[in-house]
Amino acid sequence: MSVGDRATISNMTPEYGATAAMFYIDQNTIDYLTLTGREAEQVALVENYAKEIGLWASDMKQAEYPRVLRFDLSTVTRNIAGPSNPHARVSTADLKEKGIAGVVENRTDGLMPDGAVIIAAITSCTNTSNPRNTVAAGLLARKANELGLTRKPWVKSSFAPGSKAAALYLEEAGVLDDLEKLGFGIVAYACTTCNGMSGALDPKLQQEIIDRDLYATAVLSGNRNFDGRIHPYAKQAFLASPPLVVAYAIAGTIRFDIEKDALGNDKDGNPIYLKDIWPSDEEIDALVKEAVKPEQFRKVYIPMFDLGVTEKAASPLYDWRPQSTYIRRPPYWEGALAAPRTLANMRPLAILPDNITTDHLSPSNAIMMDSAAGEYLHKMGVPEEDFNSYATHRGDHLTAQRATFANPKLFNEMVVRADGTIKQGSKARVEPEGEVMRMWEAIETYMNRKQPLIIIAGKDYGQGSSRDWAAKGVRLAGVEAIVAEGFERIHRTNLVGMGVLPLEFKAGTDRKTLGLDGTELYSVIGNIAPRSTLTLVIERATDEGKSEIVEVPVTCRLDTEEEVSVYEAGGVLQRFAQDFLEGNVA
């Protein structure tokens, strides 16, 4: 397996639940280090070190593993992931059977078809370390151009490599112009579409999506496609390789069967299929070998780290700027985080279903004017075109707090319509009044009351990106505990680090079996210890108007004594401060 492919797999580890993806060091590794401009001395050091300590490929054959999985690489076909999660892999050959691809609308009225791809983006993170991917996209674009294929007019296409080196080797390969001709010109060298920063749509297309309630989609080569993340008007998003992104820009709709439907016709009227423009491994490897050179990486990275003569700051302390909406003195020793956690008489901020992602908890996408964060930035004098994304403002807690549960795709089961269905959106119901309002207004209401909060959830709470604000936001809102059927591993750790107590329902018990509706008061009693059984005390009114107490055993998901220590300190920052003041930090 090429080092570029290994890097792509490693980049996706949070998405498939791993901490890291480890590969042995071999000649491919050494060749890659040389190719990407590392000094000969460093390359030799890596090789000698790996061989000396037993990490070289031949040495790893002697390693003993508790479990061995065998996987035939020859069975791998083209795949995409979607429509809502990066681990939801589906073969492109199976799209029709899965109900994703199907009959394509042949509209003659100039309107977009059902399943229209409104965004097609080659993004930075999952292809920057893999020149084969971007070169493959360039070769596919070249063949498409030669046959007269074009992207559909409603597709907003972009190319944002993570490194300027990509532009150099693609130009050397002669395919940068081919990508540009199909609409995939370089727009930036950074996170863009993957982080909700694809920019505004054509106003006419946006209005058409609204008026027709169109099922519009995005296709991108990034690693995250959670609901509401990519663009407010892309109802769902699919992850694909860079060449497949270009192909879907030509197809113009996710309903297109990319393996069987014709992308268009040549000048003689013959149908053109994906197989006709898909580059072979031999073509890709030959062009990579010819065009990707060490001097391209040296040209980009050596000047980047050449700081030259730098002026020493007058003070080692940062001069906080009160009006900044990007970086502000954090409140981690004030307010809710400084207050004692009583775990008593907590009100539920939300009752949530399974598979709540960190994008539901703290979205990173573009900030809209009608959101709580948008209104705040507008009040601060920031023009709408400079709102940027939630992710870029996470150094300002006043913006980031307003991102808590701000995802428009959220389903808070406490917010129910008259017909009994759950209303989608960033909504909450304040108790005991029972008033439904925007989530941020509900949080402010509870903060002013100094009301401790709790969250009730289903399975896999906190899956997806390992985002710190998904834990910071709920803690600053006053959430003291979260009771779920299960937690994503990394997010559970982040909750502990923020002083939020993760509790897990015992098997057979959940929010539905208990009939929870959000009118209850919750308390937690018992001895907090690693994986101890605590009691969740639920106080609620009966149909007769009397008070009822229900006691539910739950598992404390502080899994180690160290986690208990961090939690009892109030979080990892408070624990560090204690150790520092006590002289325990070197």
Automatic annotation (TrEMBL):
Domain Aconitase A/isopropylmalate dehydratase small subunit swivel: 375-507
Single GO molecular function: iron-sulfur cluster binding
Cofactor: [4Fe-4S] cluster
Keywords for the protein's UniProt record, in alphabetical order: Iron, Iron-sulfur, Metal-binding
Domain Aconitase/3-isopropylmalate dehydratase large subunit alpha/beta/alpha positions: 1-252
Pfam family, one: Aconitase
Keyword Ion transport applies: no
InterPro entries reported in the protein's UniProt record: Acnase/IPM_dHydase_lsu_aba_1/3 (IPR015931), Acoase/IPM_deHydtase_lsu_aba (IPR001030), Aconitase/3IPM_dehydase_swvl (IPR015928), Aconitase/IRP2 (IPR006249), Aconitase_4Fe-4S_dom (IPR036008), AconitaseA/IPMdHydase_ssu_swvl (IPR000573)
Cleavable signal peptide: none
Family: Belongs to the aconitase/IPM isomerase family.
Name of the protein this chain belongs to: Aconitate hydratase
Organism of provenance: Notodromas monacha
